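Q: What does the predicted 3D structure of Copper resistance protein NlpE N-terminal domain-containing protein look like?
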Amino acid sequence: MQLRSLLAGSAMLALLAGCAAGPTEQREEEQATSSEVTYQGTLPCRNCDGIDLDVVLQGEEQSTAEERTFNLNAAYRNHPQNPPDETYEGNWEVLSGTPSDPDATVYELTPDGDGQIYYFLRVDDRTLELIDPERRRFENGETLQLNRQ
C-alpha cells in the first residue's frame, strides 16, 4: 500500500479517531536546545487499527533549505495485508497561509525520489495537522494531528 494513498483517502479515514502520546516536561527542555523535533500520532485507517506516523524535522524555519530535512515513518497496525513500514526522507519548506487563515504556517515535506508531498498545518507549537495539497483542513482534522514529543 503506497503512502500516497493515505492523503487521498484521509477525508474518508478522518471518521475514525486517532490517538497520540503526550510529551514530558524533561523532553521539552531537551528540545529547546535541539534543532531536531519529533512529532508522533496515529492516523485513522479504514482497513486497520491505525497508521502510526513519526515525523522528525531537522533544522529550523530560519535554516537554509539544505539544512531543513525530514524523516517520515508510517507503520500500519493490524492491517490484514501486513504491509511493510514506509519510510521517506527529504527536505521541508515553510509556506505561509491557508485559504481560511492567511497567517497560518504550513510545512511542506517533499520526499527524495518517489513519494508524495505532505502538508502539515502548524496548529500550535506542539501540534501539526495533516492537510490537503490545497492547504485546506479536513472536516475531522483533529484525528489527523501529530503531537510534539
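A (community wiki): The C-alpha cells above were generated from the sequence. The two ends are 27 Å apart (CA to CA). Residues 1-24, 26-33 have pLDDT under 50 and may be disordered.
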